[in-house]
Amino acid sequence: QVQLVESGGGLVQAGGSLRLSCAASGLTLSTYAMGWFRQVPGKEREFVAGIIRSGSTTLYADSVKGRFTISRDNAKNTVYLQMNSLKPEDTAVYYCAADRGGVLYPRTASLYYDNWGQGTQVTVSS
Predict the structure, then answer these.
(1) Running DSSP on this structure, what letter comes out for residue 45?
(2) Residue 103's pLDDT is what?
(3) What is the pLDDT of residue 47?
(4) How far apart are CA 107 and CA 98, in angstroms?
(5) What is the Rg, in whole angstroms, of the alpha carbon atoms belonging to the chain?
(6) How far apart are CA 96 and CA 118, in angstroms?
């Protein structure tokens, strides 16, 4: 059974940092591109960051570029999202997801991602 479990969310003041982790089980992470998405109530889930299988190529939404960093440790079957200089508008539930495609470049559309975690809440206070 495939499971993606996010952790590391919480409440932080604006300007602060958080590091999200996504631990995978039931799949070999090195055979998937991985993505982080976020969603606020009443809005569509949006792409935040993606990373291909090898980790050599990453992609970021313009809203987080320069502040967030996605990385992966295939030996640990874990993907990370380092979030710095957090803003109140970063408040959302953050999800990690696995994509069997995205071989050369991370894909941004959620429909390409086969497996999803349950999400972790990130709240940034002003």
Answers:
(1) -
(2) 87
(3) 98
(4) 11
(5) 13
(6) 8
Are 74 and 33 in contact by the 8 Å Cβ rule? The answer is: no
> In order along the chain (126 residues), what is the average pLDDT of each group of 10 residues?
96 98 94 97 97 97 98 97 98 97 93 96 97
DSSP structural state of residue 43:
S
State residue 33's pLDDT score. Answer: 97
CB-neighbour burial class of residue 41 (10 A; exposed 0-12, middle 13-18, buried 19+)? exposed
Neighbours of 114 (CB within 10 A): 13
C-alpha distances (whole Å) from 83 to each of 28, 30, 104 are 25, 23, 24
The whole-number pLDDT of residue 17 equals 98
User: Count H helices, E strands: the chain?
Assistant: 0, 11
Q: Is residue 111 classed exposed, middle or buried when 0-12, 13-18 and 19+ CB atoms within 10 A define those classes? A: exposed
User: Contact at 8 Å (CB) between 19 and 67?
Assistant: no
DSSP 27: S
Q: What is the DSSP string of 98-123?
A: EES--SSS----GGG--EE---EEEE
